[in-house]
Amino acid sequence: MIPSQMLKGVLEGCILEVIRKQETYAYEISKQLEDYGFGMISVGTIYPIILRLQKSELVKATLQDSNSGPKRKYYQLTEKGVTTLNQFKANWQELDRAVNQLLIGGGKNE
């Protein structure tokens, strides 16, 4: 299981990527993250992040009918969200390279 402190810094970008792949709702985001190996991330953790993404105009929500109960809020990326996600991916690749270089070796002090 990934420690929550490590997840905090990357969860927002990962949620943007899940939404980019398919317009979806909070519970489904939680399930998809679990399927990708993030462990159980509660909807109570997902909702505040989505609210922050909405306030930042990175995602927008639409109410859609549900087969099993009340209407659901489905989220999709805005143009600003796509730009932010692309920046997250670039930053992640840079961080990934640096951490791997340190942990696996091949750094300048080796």
From TrEMBL:
| Protein name per its UniProtKB record | PadR family transcriptional regulator
**Transcription regulator PadR N-terminal domain sequence ranges:** 15-86
Give the domain of life: Bacteria
Q: Where would one find the signal peptide in this protein?
A: none
Query: What lineage is this protein's organism placed in?
Result: Bacteria, Bacillati, Bacillota, Bacilli, Bacillales
Task: Record the organism.
Answer: Natronobacillus azotifigens
